[in-house]
């Protein structure tokens, strides 16, 4: 059997054996927790000693007496000799006394006595022997040894060789459970319950489940900890190895009902009880408990309970008093676990059987929430109309009506719904949260983003108690909107908070989040992240008109990185995919991208026409459109390039409508556009600094570039080069190769020539000479991707990747892609120096 990661242990034993051959014997005790490989180590060393010609003797320990050949006194062996005694923790007292005597005599003999024992087994019994012996502790295998043994990273076995050796066994769970419960003996039940209760179970919980006193359980835990099977800290217990815990759980399903009942009797969190009920048989007690807690569980832990609720709904006869309540909770759990069509069917079926008013309202709410989640405000209103009595709705349905009114841009209707629901707010956190959402919406439309964020701050305290993912999601969405309009970089953190909820619920929330994330990442210069969001969104069905803005963002990034053909392809796709209920949110972005690309191909008349249509032919500029602010300056650029100064001034005047005291980026955009129109270098440089400080590198680079051109036009060559370098540094970090080349051409038209692009001291050869784009391509090549796969990953053309690879090879002196990959790996290992 091959031994991994024990080189130091073998060295110690080999040195002890060599010393014994020379007449300097010893008693060596190897200690370890179970499964650490004592027996394998002793066997391997014994075989090596025997192969070298040394006599070896293996002394068995008889179970259960613990008797050994040493139990009747010391034994004589022809020397030199190696004596091996495994499982010393099971040996009787006579054996230990004999070893004490041998330890005192062996120093001048050619005799090595090698014993192995479990480290935690009654350590006080072995304390004296350990003092008279050379002790060696076997620790868990390190990561390198685990990889050598298994060919993979396996953290869940904690470096335990025995567990690692069972990883691929077809009956691993049974083998691992048998091993652990055999070691645990009478404490096996406590071990099983500790695995079922999960990480950090309390002693009191274990005592309740195991039906033993806390003192008895604490003693059992200490015995199990001594065996290395559990870890106990401050009265909290966890199974030491995740793999062991998982296998114990897999073989202990029959105990789930017992655990659930014990936790329920202790008023444990409903989700903790439900986690066990999903594996337990259904009976009347389970059904009654479910009926009491199902509504909360369906909203907060739908993935956990949806199948349990389905089992309960199928089991209950038509006349059962809890059938309708559990059926409503099932529809809610299906909705919040992303099973929209199942939820629609369950709610519709539930309404057919004429449930009581409370259940009927819940089922109607499910249908309305589905419509709202699909951004069908009119459909939601039609669903809710069936519940109106004298023109009024119950509070929770009224707030849904308010959201539906918002979706169809009926802000007055949203306000009426809020007023109708308001009396219930002090007693219902869902209604209170909804009203704060409406307040934030209204304040955002009034451009009072400070007030909107203050309302959402008050809503934050309700997110953990308002049992409605839709309203929680809208609170996060409105925070994203407010922070995005003000270009506050905290919006990235809020997006990440909303991502798990959007992925869980699905419907329109996930594509909307991915599209918003792509736009925001683009604005903040995180272009690779933006492209990753676009690739992920492309895997979803586009039911909401969001494919258009996704392609528009991809087009802008690809254009600025120098791949005009790919940018044109994406803008064509954006134009084809216009439509859907969310078109109005981003149609301005698509038209702006069309204008920018038209200018890039030299069709300034088309670009001017598109800009005029944006200003004159739509109401885009009459509302706060966060997608417009980052592209306002490029549109002013187009107007000035086309000689239409009046159009540029109109754009600036309308941009001022977006400006608020707290909206730093729109304010900087106003400075930038004013600087463009007036040719004011100070305004342009001030805008560049403000935009850079706000974390908006592309806009900052554009402003610095325009300042450089203005300086060059006035003959201030040195100042122009300094401003140009600011722009180049930003462009290089974004891998915006087209912008670098275009800005260089603009300066050359005024007789200003820059040095090598990129950082001032960028070398011509070596890793420091690579642009950000070339370096990223080299990294992907080193990962084994083909040029086509690299192009797909970066959403660029294969031709662009070919060009980057060729330039990287030239700069690094590589004869092939293989050599490029090898050099990249060496460079990374050397710390990228």
Automatic annotation (TrEMBL):
Source domain of life: Bacteria
HTH luxR-type domain ranges (all copies): 763-828
Listed transmembrane segments: none
Any Pfam family: GerE
Signal sequence annotation: none
Family matches, as InterPro entries: P-loop_NTPase (IPR027417), Sig_transdc_resp-reg_C-effctor (IPR016032), Tscrpt_reg_LuxR_C (IPR000792), WH-like_DNA-bd_sf (IPR036388)
Xref: SMART domains: HTH_LUXR
Identification of the protein by name: LuxR C-terminal-related transcriptional regulator
Species: Saccharopolyspora ipomoeae
